[in-house]
Structure formats: C-alpha cells, structure tokens
What does this fold into?
Amino acid sequence: MTPHIDLPLLHRLLGLPERETPRALLRAARAAARTLPHLVLSLAERDGLPLGTGSTDELRRARVRAETYRRFLGLVQAEAGVRVMKGPQLAQRYPADLLRPAGDLDLVAADEARLWLAARAVLAVRQVEDIDLTVFQHSGHRDVVIALAWPSEDPLLDRGYKIEISTMAFPGDGGAVPIRAALPADPWLADLLALAEERHQRDFHAKDVLDVLVLAGDAPPGETVAAAAAGLYLAPELAELLDYAAGFASLGPLAPTLERLRAPAAAELARRARWHPAEAGAADSVADRLATGRPVYGMPLRQVSGREDWPVAELREVAGSTVLATPVADLLLVTGELVDPEQFTSVLRALGEST
It folds into this structure.
C-alpha cells in the first residue's frame, strides 16, 4: 500500500498553515532537513506547479544523486555482498513520481574483509576527495566505519556525495546502548529500525515521518516488530518515532506496534538507568581508547595500491604513533580533531622512507 503524500501533508509536517505558498513550504523544508526540498520540488512538479530554471536544475541534480547512489549500490553488492540501510531500498517504496531525498549512501558489511572489498570497488571507479575512518574495539572484536566522499556537481549549493560502509549496523549511543553489528534479515525491519537508531544522533523530523508512512502499509504483526526492536535495544526510540508520526497521519497496519512497544520501551529505559560506564584509563591515548571501547579516528596519510590480497587492516606503530594500514589507505589513528602537525609530518615521512 503506497501512502498518499501531498502538499497538505507536507504543510502539516512542517508546521505551516495550508494557505502558505509553495515557496514558503520550500523554505520550511530547507530549514527542516538539507535534502527534504528535493521531495517538495518533485511533489510540486507532480502537481503541475510551475518550476523555474533554478528549481528544475536542483531537482535534476537530486535525481542524478539518487541514480548515482543506485549505481554504486549495485556495484558494491556485486563485488562485496554488502547490504544497504534505507536509501535506495526505502526510496522504492515511495510513489514513482516522488523523489525520496538522498543525502548519503549507508552500507553494512558482514565483516571487515567485505568492507574493504566494497571500499576498493568504489575507489576503482571514483576518485574521492576525503576518506574518514572510525575504529571501535570491543569484546575482542574490531568494528570499522569508512566514509568515502567527493564533491557534488554544484558544491556551493549541494552537499557532497558520501558513501559510508560499516561493519556495524547500529552504533548505539556510546554508553548504555551498545554496538549491534548485524542488520535484521528482513529488509523492512532493517529500514524501520535504522530510522529509530537515528534518534541517537538527532531529533526526528518530517522526512522520518514520510519514511514511516511508506513502510506502514506492509507492516508485519506488531509483536514481531516490537520483539525485534526490544532485541536491538531500540524499543524507546521506535516508540518515540511512531508516536511522532502518528501525530501527522494514520499509521495503518503499523498502529498496533505502538501499543506493543510500551512495555519493552519502559523495560529498556529502566535497564539504561541501571547502567554504569566502565572506568576509563588514566590516559586518553589511542591504545587506551581502544582498550576501553571508545572510538578512535583515522586521518588519511596516503592511499595505497598493491594490497589486493589483504583481507583486513593492520595496526602498526610508526614514528611513535599508531597507524592503521588498510587495503586501500594508511591512516593515522587519533583521539580528536586536533593533531600536532609535526606528528603527522613525521609519520608521513617515516612511511615514505619505509616504502
């Protein structure tokens, strides 16, 4: 069942009276979420509203972005068997004449070897401007997140492209809600719970409601959804998301899930209240953060070739610093945004001398 998405619904979602003009609606959409204007423009086009040259080209660029992500998804699925969260998968549920806003492409790899296969597949066809890396060490296991970014067609107006590949589906809140690596096997559940997980990074907004509505028509039984959310520590976030969406439109077959979530959400909140963090070490070094399950970050030193037979990355000590040598790049592991330029230069020099 495809929901009816129209201008009055968008007015309600953005808190505008229906008498407000499409221009005011577009302004509100820009304030609410960076890519939401793309859906508003496609909706205006569908309803026959006149679009000028600027609006027409913005919508064209947004469609190019969505198609670019679809192509990359096909490529990395073929090369590495990764799975997608939301993005093109969720966009298929929207009415054919509407464009679901596309910001980044979020992919989940079953293990680190597949993550590097996916990254290598992207880098083989696309020169990137930036590589961001985050590493977590927990319970004797390493999780990696790599983001590959490059400029958009119009960098002054549009955010850049970014493909994020992770070995963990749900990163949690860095505290009581732990990392959960695997996506649910059911893509419907994976998408809905990925929406709920977003609450650990930001407040819910209009785009999330639209995503819930396009999922609602195919909802499995409420007890199935509630059990999956509880098992992934997401019952409070999913209850909040559905409560929020229900304030704007009927949840249809998804409505029974909300009541099924009340008890597990309360139980999860009680569990979090009892949680106490493990004591961190006295130092805040890379080694200390990894040992205590806190993230460290990768500053790109150089891209590399000739490591096609490397399945995973290696931690190395170089010039007194920790470097993650990966199948696609060497990165200086750091604990924050500020890094001593001399440290960076000395590590880069040492790497050059070792090759």
Residues 85 and 106 are 6 Å apart (CA to CA). Strands lie at 83-85, 105-108, 130-138, 141-150, 161-166, 296-303, 314-318, 321-325, 329-334.
